[in-house]
Amino acid sequence: MSETPLVDREDQDGLAILSLNRPEALNALSPNLFVALRAHLESLRDATDEIGCVILCGRGRSFSAGNDLKAIQAGERPPSAHFQAETLEIIERLPQPVIAAVQGHCYTGALELAIACDLMIAAESARFSDTHGKWGMSPTWGMSQRLPRRVGLLAAREMMFSGRVVGGSEAASIGLANRAVPEEELMPAAIEMARSFLENSWHTLRMDKALINGGLDRPLDQGLAWEREVSPGSGPDTAERLKNFGK
Fold first, then answer.
1. Which residues, 6+ apart, have CB-to-CB distance to 196 below 8 Å?
2. How does pLDDT run across 197-240, given as a tens digit for each residue?
3. Per-residue pLDDT reduced to its tens digit, 220-230
4. Neighbouring-strand partners of residue 55
5. What is the DSSP letter of 128?
6. Which of 104, 87, 106 is nearest to 31 (CA)?
7. What are the DSSP E strand ranges found in the chain?
């Protein structure tokens, strides 16, 4: 009998759904779970003809309670010192847009995982918090860099300094999530968003993501010049799409 996978992948007509699959442990982020997640991400990175968009979600009542301290105490170790942080960078640099679908707990490492995704749909039940301060720790998976870029400097500082819990509706209001929906509508809303992307050119989806990410690494004037230099403009499906315009 095969072991239950720590991360499941389901493909649906160009959409890949990755599900953290430790519901009994609130999908706590053990080193072994990160190894399984990395394997899926590396496979998706090379599947741009088959997969145009990705949803990352968690099974059960929570997206993830965060880093699995119990697994670490039990001797579980990642393959390298910064394996988790580098895995989040793979999500950020994945060619396809990645949507986080978040319900229940999304604490600390899980929040860092969620904000490495391009977009987020939050259930109204979602609870976001950075609890590094509770344990006397400082972030190494990207919280200090991604959270200010997501919600702005003041909101990020307050969340990080206080460790307070932000609900799903507030997450949407401060720009942490795109929108908040009742929990039973979470996956339908995430899939609907993904399908709206997949109707457009996958070439454009990939270029949009790459250009946005590359521009964020540069001052505005350099970003504008970089877009002109790097963007191919029209893509391999442009002619066919123009031919079908108005039909």
1. none
2. 999 999 999 999 999 999 988 999 999 999 999 998 888 988 88
3. 999 999 999 99
4. 17, 99
5. E
6. 87
7. 7-12, 15-20, 53-58, 98-102, 105-107, 119-123, 127-129, 166-167, 179-181
